[in-house]
Amino acid sequence: MNKTEKIVSLYDKYVMKTYSRFPLCIEKAKGAKLWDIDGKTYIDFFPGWAVSGIGHCHPRVVAAINKQSKKLLHVSNNYYSELQALLAEEIIKNSYPGKVFFANSGAEANEASVKLARKYGHDKGRYEVITMTKSFHGRTLAMITATGQDKVKLGFEPLPSGFVHVPFNDIEAVKEAVTDKTAAIMLEPIQCEGGINIASLEYMRALRALCDEKDIALVLDEVQTGMGRSGRMFAYQNYGIEPDMMTLAKAIGGGLPIGVCVARGKFADVLTPGTHASTFGGSPIVCAAALAVFEAIKKEKLIQNATKMGAYMKKKLEELKKKYRFIKEIRSVALIIGVELSIKGDDIYKECLNAGLLINCTQGSILRIMPPLNVTKAEIDKAVSILDKVFSRK
Ligand SMILES: *Cc1c(COP(=O)(O)O)cnc(C)c1O
To answer: Which domains does the chain have, with CATH numbers?
Structure first.
């Protein structure tokens, strides 16, 4: 039995089987490189579902965590914390005038935005939230209800009421679904889990206009698309509009758990003392890490690199598309990359893993590739050559 097999047997005994896990036990990682517990190396083009967006164990993040760990790890949210204030300021400076609420995960950030929208609409009897089919918003009861995919809901009924789904990128469907009870429209600007479906410019602008006209909150779930991955700090910035709320998690913590709801203008002061809270939300250690993520993105010009490397990877993948007719379409925005296949993607994902490349497969046949923002050409070349080799056996 090697070390990995030993760990797997402990999981079998003691950890709930809520994930389908590949027998890979990672011991350490740096940038896009991983080492497993038995010494094998991999390149990671799907770092922790985009959590390690600026690469694993980024030196600035590690240094910030080390420094803060000697001073203060956690403080009650009934007091003030300098780093929480500075992080809030940094987020607002990079997005739009407003205020933030700190939580610990994407689902919680989305919950906060739905609670906020309901509170805002409450006096007018508005509580309904319109979301999109194929969306993904997290795993709490309200968020599996918000998520427009049946597979996450089955077996958990009765679900909370007040959520309605419409097809993505279809403005008429949204208009039809709006009633005098609609409090919010919530969507991902790019549906990642849903298969890299990109909202069109017209759609996003029409949604903004609709929400303005009807005083409905436009909520953008940027848990996966945020923090530079789309070629802008936040994906909505590709559309020339601003949401009323945006939610962040995953990459903003540099590997530590964080969730943020960023509310604009008239939504910024809706939640008052006693209406919402999170014990761990915005702890100093997490805020130190998140501030280091912003610093790294700026000082190391990682957004520019994401745009450049995204274009390079797309070009390389288009070359593979000419070679393999089972590649149907490549959809990408900077380093958010989807490769839609006409064959099943699960085997390809597994074979890539065996060959030393971590990617993801979603919706059965769409390869999801999200390299860290500081990825190099050499790493892309290596990854594409592994994909090429795996494809050539199909
Ligand atoms: C991952 C994800 C979530 C859920 O985040 P958790 O931290 O797992 O709760 C929500 N929305 C989107 C778009 C995500 O990618």
So the answer is: 3-58+301-391 (3.90.1150.10), 72-299 (3.40.640.10)
